[in-house]
């Protein structure tokens, strides 16, 4: 049975399992969704991504969780908290990624708000961050909507490219 992490009026966030590979693959292997990652994942990259999430659950007790619609139980994305390197330290990052057909419905803001509250009130982080590619305007807007502000810019090296990112932080 899946472990429920947090619930919102429309969504439930659960720890993912390998039984979630089909909906996960449809999201991570979609070019429209993965433009900020410089392209869709392969099947091998998707499996590695899932293994990484499962390892995060074991190592930290948190990670990126599957976002499910309450009324249909359909997995529509992922949202959660991961530890990411920033300068010389590890910081807790709120991350989110949703199936293209579920964009512009408020799900990312709703899920990210729940993750912010979980991170501050359950995991007791003093601050939470989001590291967002500078070209990802929609994700930048979500970060601002949940009360984050830009504090820095960094270059991330990913898939053989240098990609400018903006660091957002809770106030």
From TrEMBL:
It comes from the Bacteria. Residues 16-166 form the N-acetyltransferase domain. One of its GO terms (molecular function) is acyltransferase activity, transferring groups other than amino-acyl groups. This is GNAT family N-acetyltransferase. InterPro entries: Acyl_CoA_acyltransferase, GNAT_dom, N-acetyltransferase. PANTHER family: GNAT FAMILY, PUTATIVE (AFU_ORTHOLOGUE AFUA_3G00765)-RELATED-RELATED, N-ACETYLTRANSFERASE DOMAIN-CONTAINING PROTEIN.
């Amino acid at each position: 049975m899946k472990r429920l992490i947090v619930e919102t009026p429309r969504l439930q966030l659960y720890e993912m399992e390998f039984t979630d590979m089909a909906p996960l693959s449809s999201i991570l292997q979609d070019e429209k969704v993965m433009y900020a990652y410089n392209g869709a994942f392969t099947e091998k990259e998707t499996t590695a991504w899932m293994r990484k999430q499962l390892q995060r659950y074991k190592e930290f007790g948190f990670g990126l969780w599957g976002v499910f619609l309450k009324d249909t139980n359909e997995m529509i994305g992922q949202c959660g908290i991961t530890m990411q390197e920033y300068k010389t330290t590890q910081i807790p990052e709120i991350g989110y990624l949703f199936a293209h057909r579920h964009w512009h419905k408020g799900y990312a803001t709703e899920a990210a708000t729940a993750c912010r509250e979980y991170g501050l009130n359950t995991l007791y982080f003093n601050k939470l961050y989001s590291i967002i590619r500078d070209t990802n305007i929609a994700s930048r807007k979500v970060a601002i909507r949940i009360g984050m502000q830009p504090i820095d810019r960094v270059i991330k090296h990913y898939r053989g490219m240098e990609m400018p990112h903006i660091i957002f932080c809770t106030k």
